[in-house]
Amino acid sequence: MRPLTDDETKVLFEKLAKYIARNIIHLIDRPDEPYCFRLQKDRVYYVSESNMRRATAIGRKNLVSLGICFGKFTKTGKFRLHITALQYLAQYAKYKVWIKPNGEMPFLYGNHVVKAHIGRVTEDIPEHQGVVIYNMADVPLGFGVSARSTVDMRKVDPTGIAVFHQADNGEYLREEDALF
Amino acid sequence: MGRRAKNKQDVPLPFELENKIEGKVTKKLNDRLKHEAIRAHKQREAALKQNKDSRRMQPPASPKDNERKRKRNTAPKPNKKITKPKVESEDEEEEDTPAAATILDEDAPVDGWDNAPIVSDSDGGIDSDSELESDEEAESADDNNADSSEEEFASAEDGSAAEAEIASVNEDSESDVSGSDSGSESETVTQKPLSLLSDESDEAESDDGIESYDEFDTDAEEDDDEAVTFRDMEKRSRKIDARRQMEAEMAELELETGEAVVEGERELFELPSEEQVELEKEAPLDLSQVQLRIQEIIRVLGNFAELRDETKSRNQYMSQLKRDMCYYYGYNEFLMDKLMDLFAVGEAIEFFEANEVARPVTIRTNTLKARRRDLAQSLINRGVNLDPIGKWTKVGLTIFDSQVPIGATPEYMAGHYMIQAASSFLPVVALAPQENEKVLDMSAAPGGKTTYCAALMKNTGMVVANDANREREKALVANVHRLGASNVVVCNYDGREFPKVMGGFDRVLLDAPCSGTGVISKDASVKVNKGPEDFIMLTRLQKELILSAIDSVNADSGTGGYIVYSTCSVTVDEDEAVVNYALRKRPNIKLVDTGLDFGRPGFTSFRGHSFHSSLALTRRFYPHTHNMDGFFVAKFQKLSNKVQVSEEQVVIPTGSGATTKQRKKKKGSHH
């Protein structure tokens, strides 16, 4: 377990900014207690500082996870967000897409979101921006990248892809081994 | 002989006779039956003394026959009369008559061949095979002891049903109805070898069940038709509760009356001889026959003084019972011994029977992400039929049936609930972690209890989830993340290393690795693959772990200083014995109330071992009484940190854990 280097922090924050924009500041500056990002075996964990300090007693080999895992650095130095980060992304998301009940399961099985399944959408999503997907009951299901801007979405035919799939809750079942 | 008897029995009774005997008969009849049973018993003893072999050849005693005939006329009547006055159908009569008639046979010398055919008759069509068999064998005069005794069991079983009938006559009209059914019921019972619990009392119980369901049927249907709302659900659950209570009451009633009559008026039951036992080893009996024998032995044990065979000791009965139960339920003998020690014989059967039935699926609402009411509503909308588990938990729901896989709904994936056995709520409820505490879960995978702790602490403080198994930790981490428990740190140590890795916890939860005798319904392999060496290994590990857990706690903690020890095993070696060991080794702890208002108190003495008197504060849970997995929960409070140091100096050189601890430490530093 170690703090992120400057480069790593930059890569991570750039990625996060796509989803929550300036709200990153809320992740660092929390009213309750200070939180921090820590790297442990490629994975980036988001954990309260007090817990982080206590966890230093645990050996590196034996520490499996602390706090919430945001994602991992790939071998090429890019950062991949994992579905486990969803609770924070959903909390601070800038662009949101709500999908109808008939679109829930297709998305949770790893498919892109087609236009026909969209129930509601934030007004001003630009193209290729990170969006968080909710169902109509406001339960976050996953996140993705907008295939088109909100304006263009209107014009697409119902089967056209509106949001590219990146991660969904179904991965807890499908990829349990790969995720952790 | 058999044919003749059958014909006789089938003749319907003259109507006037029925009238004559109606009403007050029962008491008289009862007395007479009892009297005759005793007489038969005496005669039989005498006969035994004279010549043991004579039993095979014994001709039917003519005075007995007369008696039998006379009673055949009387016995079946009362209940028939009372229950269904005139609309009695021919079939029922036929069913009732033979069943009742067998009582009388039992008064006759028990073991003669003349008995067998009648018995098989009374079994009706179902046992027609055995009837044929017995006829053939009678012809060939090749008597097989085993067979004859089997037949007797059959007869006794039917007889018991008939007795229940007589008993019911004493009761008011309602129980009469159920009692009269039991005659025909007994036949269905013989057909279903796997429901062993259906001896006379339970038979009656099942009848009641059917009745009361009929009563409620209309309601239930209405409920189904209506749109099911959460409020409606509560109403329904209340209704179900009321129904259950009623059933329980009825069952009790039946039990009492049943027992009252069963005493002493039945044919003596014969234990199989040693040769038979040997024979059975090579060619095992039919399951239903073994079941009948188990029931018989239990009956004898229930009233040993009167029903026993004088030549056989209680131990012989017990060992035969164990052999049969091992065979019937598929346990190994070691485990059977362990489990039989825990219960009275009747309860043991209930326990084993409960292990054959799966517990209901239960889920725990993740209060970090959802409320139970909302969750229940959205699951109902998906076609899930559910109810709250009980009053003792505000987060649990029982799933009755579901049109969707309950482990793959969007709500599940979003972490709104966790599939978790009701029993594994208990240790966390007992632990009662507070906000901002530092809690250790020593063997955490797959994370049900860990995340429950985190939820109770509202994601504040810290939960250290440890597990020794890497593979299982994956599921643990996945669940922690899915449920959004951000205050959890997961690590991978042997639990015994713990006070060295990290100490000073406010509370420690030790759900120790165990033999799993409480969760046989989930994993039946326990029945055969747990032997003495497993128990030695496990109890040793548990003792080491519990000391580690105690030493990891900070007694000076403002809010805590508690340790909860739990296992999903019901054996005393893994439960009370371990707790008692901890109390002995660590004088700075005491047992405190678990905060669970149900469950049975732990044993304070068991098979000559006496434990600390405070062990009554621990709680045991059984599948057959609480409809959850077998479980054990003990809660300690640590009083001071000081004693531990001096105590440890004593423990380390002598205790078995010491060497392992040292070794592990070396290994750990080696990494």
UniProtKB/TrEMBL annotation, chain A:
UniProtKB keywords: Nucleus, Ribosome biogenesis, RNA-binding
GO molecular function: RNA binding
GO cellular component: nucleolus
Gene3D superfamilies recorded: 3.10.450.220, PUA domain
Domain of life where this protein originates: Eukaryota
GO BP annotation list: ribosome assembly
Protein family: Belongs to the NIP7 family.
Signal peptide (from-to): none
Record-linked SUPFAM superfamilies: Pre-PUA domain, PUA domain-like
InterPro entries named in the record: NIP7_N, Nip7_N_euk, PUA, PUA-like_sf, PUA_sf, Ribosomal_synth_fac_NIP7, UPF0113_PUA
Its job: Required for proper 27S pre-rRNA processing and 60S ribosome subunit assembly.
Principal localisation: nucleus
Organism whose genome encodes this protein: Coemansia guatemalensis
Membrane-spanning residues: none
Source organism phylogeny: Eukaryota, Fungi, Fungi incertae sedis, Zoopagomycota, Kickxellomycotina
A Pfam entry, by short name: UPF0113
Domain PUA: 95-170
Name listed for the protein in its UniProt record: 60S ribosome subunit biogenesis protein NIP7
Subcellular location: Nucleus, Nucleolus
Subunit annotation: Interacts with pre-ribosome complex.
Keyword field contains Hydrolase: no
SMART domains linked to this entry: PUA (SM00359)
UniProtKB/TrEMBL annotation, chain B:
Entry annotation: catalytic residues: 568 (nucleophile)
Upper classification of the organism: Eukaryota, Fungi, Fungi incertae sedis, Zoopagomycota, Kickxellomycotina
Alphabetical keyword list: Methyltransferase, Nucleus, Ribosome biogenesis, RNA-binding, S-adenosyl-L-methionine, Transferase
Family that this chain belongs to: Belongs to the class I-like SAM-binding methyltransferase superfamily. RsmB/NOP family.
Membrane-spanning parts: none
MF terms (GO), sorted A to Z: RNA binding; rRNA (cytosine-C5-)-methyltransferase activity
Compositional bias per record (Acidic residues), positions renumbered to this chain: 124-155, 199-227
Stretches the record annotates as Disordered: 21-239
SAM-dependent MTase RsmB/NOP-type domain location: 351-639
Protein name: Nucleolar protein 2
Residue ranges with Low complexity bias: 156-187
Primary residence: nucleus
Biological-process GO terms, alphabetical: maturation of LSU-rRNA; rRNA base methylation
UniProt: S-adenosyl-L-methionine binding residues: 443-449, 467, 494, 511
PROSITE patterns associated with the record: NOL1_NOP2_SUN, SAM_MT_RSMB_NOP
Localisation: Nucleus, Nucleolus
Matching InterPro entries: MeTrfase_RsmB-F_NOP2_cat (IPR049560), MeTrfase_RsmB-F_NOP2_dom (IPR001678), Nop2p (IPR011023), RCMT (IPR023267), RCMT_NOP2 (IPR023273), RsmB/NOL1/NOP2-like_CS (IPR018314), SAM-dependent_MTases_sf (IPR029063)
Biased composition (Basic and acidic residues): 21-56, 228-239
